[in-house]
Amino acid sequence: MEQIELQPLLENYHRKVSKVDLRFKRYLYNQINWDARMIGIKGARGVGKTTMLLQHIVENYENIDKTLYASLDDLWFVSHTLMDLIDWAYQHGITRVYLDEVHRYDQWSVCLKNIYDNYPDMSIVYTSSSLLIMDNAKVDLSRRQTIYTLYGMSFREYLDFEGIVKCAPIPLEDLLCNHVNLAIQIIRGIKIIPLFESYLSHGYYPFYQEAGEDFMIRLRETVSVVIDADLPSVERISFETLQKVRKLLMIISEHVPFEPNMSQLWKELSTNNELGLRMLYALEKAMILGLLTSKIKNYKYLHKPDKIFLGNSNLMHALCTRTNKGNERETFFFSQLNVEHELKLPKQGDFLVDNKYLFEVGGHRKTFDQIADIPDSYLAIDDTEIGHGSRIPLWMFGFLY
What we know:
- By secondary structure, this protein is an alpha/beta fold.
- The chain is 42% helix and 13% strand.
- Helix 8 packs across helix 14 (313-319) and helix 10 crosses helix 14 (313-319).
C-alpha cells in the first residue's frame, strides 16, 4: 500500500492531535501500565477515552509519526482493512499503534489476536465504547491483554476540569475517619454546594464543555447510539427488541430508582424473563443503567435486580421528565461508589459497601433511625458543607476516584 492511500487517515490523526489539551487528565491515565503489549480501555461513550489516547501520544512522541492512531469507524476502512494498516505501519518501522472504536470493525478481536501473534514486536492500545462487544469477543484475548475501565468524571475530577480545586483521590477508609478535616481543606475559598448541583446536572461527561447548551440533546443522542448501534453489534437483535429496549429505558427513567415488579414489567414489554433480564444487564454493561442486588452479581446466571438506577445523575436530567431530589442523591452515591467498591442492597439502609459499611443517603434532616445501633453505619448527607461524626457530606463521596 502506498502512503498516498493512507493520507486521509493521517490527516484525521494529525488534526485530532493538534487539538489535544494536556492540562487535565482523567483519573485512569496514570494507573495504566502503558508498557504492556496489548491494552484495552473500555467505558461508556463520551467519558474521554479518545482524548486519553491522544494525550499519551503527544506526551510520549516528539515526532507523532513515529506512532499511529486510527479510529476504526473512519470511512477509510470501507475500502481498506485493519491488517492493511498494520502491515504498512510495520514496514515503516512503527511498532506501536493506537486503535479507537474497535467495536465498529467487523472481526476486530480476530484481527487483534493476529496482530499480537504475527507481529511480536508490535504493541496495541485500543478502546471500545461498548462494554458488551468487548465482553463478547469471538476469540479469547484474556492471556494477551490488560483491560482497564474508564468511568465518567467524579465530582473531584469535575472541580479539577473546571480549574476550581485540585485534589488527590481520597480512599473510602480515610474519608470515613477524617472527613471533617478533609472537607475544611477542600472547601476553603469556594461554595461547594452550588458546584455540586452543577456537577449533578452536567459534570459526569467531559464533552459538556464543548456541547454547551446542547449537552442534554447530545447526551440523549449518545444513549440512542448505544441502543441503535452497539446493542445490535453484540448479538442478533430484532428491530422489535430494540423498540422494547427503548420502552424499558423509558419506563425505568420515569420511576428511578426503580424497584421492579418483574412479571408486571415483562408484561408491559410483551417479553419473557430471559430476554428482559438480558436487556437490563446489557444496558448496565453499557453504563446506562446501574443494577443493585442483595446478592453478588453473576453475569452467567442473571437474576432479578432489587433496585434499578440510571447510570449517573446526568442521565437523570437528560432522560427523566422530572428529577426527584432523593432519587438523584442515591444515583450519585451509587455512581461514585460503584467504580471501585462492591455495592449491595442491605436489609436496612440504602447501600452496603464492601460487605462492611452501611449507608443511608438523604437530606440534612436525615436521622439514624433506620440504621440505629448498627456497627460501621453512616449517613451521606446532602446540602451540608462539613459533617460531623458519622454524618458525612454527600458531595465528599465524589472524591473517591
